[in-house]
Amino acid sequence: MSGKFISLLLFFVLFSSACGEGKKQPLAVGDKAPDFTAVSLTGETIQLSDWKGSPIILRFWSTDCKYCRADTPIFNQYFTKYNGKGLRMLYVNTGPEPMEEIKSFAAELDIVFPVIGVGGAALGAQYNVKIVPQTIFIAPDGTILTAILGGVGEAEFSEILGKYL
Question: What CA–CA distance (Å, rounded) separates 14 from 85?
Fold first, then answer.
């Protein structure tokens, strides 16, 4: 994927949301990724700020998303390949599906990294995710590198995170 294409994708997703009486400033490339704490399907507590110093991939998805199902094996392979070099990855379900359906999806696709089921919609809202799949790449210093709407392949992983791994 060309750098020009990735640059165009940046404009798709980098987010704004209204909150309370005022508006939050839109998130943009280079901004600090909002911190959060979530509990994975296996009971692991994950706090984004604990992963500072590592490149991070946040994937927002739902069980009825055909792209999510299609490219999950690529996420698994990339994580397995670079986990030992510090890569952190998190799947965040943003849909209203029952927990059994989320667990079934994760088991069927043999997801090898943490998956968030409960609270995923709120986390998606924090990142202003409106459409899935959406993948957000975060640099080791905690800043947003880019966001991609739709399917993702190893070429995108390598182009975006290669220098960190």
Answer: 28
